[in-house]
Amino acid sequence: MSAAIALTRRSWWPWARRAAMWGFFGLIAWLLVKQARTIAWDEVLDAIRALPASTLFAAGALAACSFALYSTYDLLGRHLTKHGLGTGTVMGVTFISYAFNLNLGSLVGGVAFRYRLYSRLGLGNETITRVLGFSMLTNWLGYLVVAGAAFCFWPLALPPDWKIDNEGLRVLGAVLLLLAVAYVALCALSKGRVWRVRGHEFRAPGLSMALLQLAMSCLNWSLMGGVIWLLLQGRVDYPQVLAVLLVAAVAGVVTHVPAGLGVLEAVFVALLSHQVAETKLLGALLAYRGLYYLLPLAVATLGYLVTEMRARRLRAGHS
User: Fold this and answer.
1) Cβ atoms within 10 A of the Cβ of 84, count?
2) pLDDT tens for each residue of 85-125
3) Distance CA 79, CA 308 (A)
4) Phi, psi of 195 (to 5 degrees)
5) Are 251 and 267 in contact (CB under 8 A)?
6) Of 47, 96, 269, 290, which alpha carbon lies 20 to 30 A from 116's?
7) Would you give the DSSP letter of residue 260?
8) CA angle in degrees (0–180, nearest 5) for 245-52-95
9) Are 292 and 102 in contact (CB under 8 A)?
């Protein structure tokens, strides 16, 4: 009897979970469409056209610096795994994966593209897993520090009609900072020690590597916030813009909407529309999407094709 019950559960549970997921996505889509109908899109387009060329250039330069910095994350994994791919190749794979990750989601971009590209360049799955895991760890470690500092020391100026205060965010910020400190302490005290989690090994990298991870990732998150701050042309203080971006980043991860489409905009409108006109806010965010999402995606697509051709030549040479 128990076996029959277990079998029945296994047969209906995946369908129920899939239906709930699609229902959730449908609700989000409905809410976004409903909200979009209330927006004066002609004014949003006017706000985009009104952005000075110098502002767009400066924001684009910061976006390029952010992508260049993120592209070095996998070099840390190369240092740990000692694989033999060149610096340019590793940065190219990381750039391509990051661009597709932003636009298509982490499973497609950050994970699938790395496994495909690295495996075609000769790396084994275990090495790829370690490189990918360390890169993701680096990214979210910086998030802990930047978000912790922003929430704890520069709490959001919430809309005046909201009946909540910032104490909860301050506590959350302190917790995030403590988690980052705990990681650094773990690396300092347990260098070289190996832990096994679900069949995967995790080796503490050492204090210097942990500090390098934090420095690189903190700078990258700060650059991302700087892009939006420039496009908003100083209408909102930089710490506020950065804090809202950090909230939007987690909201995008939780909802699993590719590219956080609509989620990023909804969070910014909810938290900053009392400081900036909605049309100007959306104009800046659409410009941000163009500079930080779509333009790198176009470059990454070309890079992906070049990498595929190179991998084919390598396989042909080894055959």
Assistant:
1) 10
2) 999 999 999 999 999 998 887 777 778 889 988 998 889 99
3) 24
4) -115, 145
5) yes
6) 290
7) G
8) 50
9) yes
Please say if the pLDDT value at position 46 is more than 80.
yes
Cα–Cα distances in Å, from 268 out to 1, 282, 283, 306?
A: 53, 9, 12, 37
**What's this model's pTM, rounded to 2 decimal places?**
0.82
Neighbours of 232 (CB within 10 A): 27
The answer to whether residue 60 scores a pLDDT higher than 50 is yes
Q: What digits encode the pLDDT tens for the residues 139-164?
A: 999 999 999 999 888 877 766 665 55
Q: DSSP state, 294? A: I
Q: Where are the alpha helices (DSSP H) in the chain?
A: 2-36, 41-49, 53-70, 73-81, 87-104, 114-120, 125-153, 167-189, 207-231, 238-255, 263-272, 278-289, 295-318
Whether the Cβ atoms of residue 271 and residue 247 lie closer than 8 Å to each other:
yes
> Shortest CA distance to 238 belongs to which of 145, 157, 141?
157
Q: Do the beta carbons of residue 144 and residue 152 sit within 8 Å? A: no
How many CA atoms, within 13 angstroms, populate the side-chain half-sphere of residue 168? 4
* CA–CA dist 71, 94 (Å, integer): 5
C-alpha–C-alpha distance, residues 85 and 246, integer Å? 33
